[in-house]
Design a protein that fits this description.
Layout lengths: L11 E5 L3 H14 L2 E5 L2 H10 L4 E5 L3 H13 L7 E6 L4 H9 L2 E6 L4 H12 L2 H8 L12 E3 L6
Parallel strand pairs: 1-2, 1-3, 3-4, 4-5
Antiparallel strand pairs: 5-6
Amino acid sequence: MTIQTRHSSHSTILVIERDPLMLTAMSAMFDMQGYKAVLARTEQVAQQAIAAGPIDLIVLSIEKLQEGCEFAARLRSSETTSDISIVFLTPELSPAWTGPLQVQGGVFCMLKPVDPAALAELVEKALWMPHVAQRRANPPRAHLHKVSDWVRLEETPN
């Protein structure tokens, strides 16, 4: 089942994933949904993509909590990405992971391996959260409830 939305063709998603097969799969899925996916396997490439144009949402796949938090903190420290929502793809959803990721600006945290339909749904939810929708309506001049494989980061998992 394809989830097509009327707003998706205007959204650019930066996908940061080290695994080239997963990166390709997510790119194809976002393309089928009508999003523009910008792909990066490294932080350096991600920073170049951010500098090249406006990004509406970041999907950041991480394997190690500390490295993911540090990367997200660097994203938050940049004026260009300070208010862009982040969807984290992680190997676990325990409070030990979700708490620190929420502090770093995460909106959702999703368990890997990723279900493409669930990721598409989370991306749509993240793009239309009030602060994101407001930013998209007035772009800068310069330039759910809990389910089995994801959690909204403002909630505390059981």
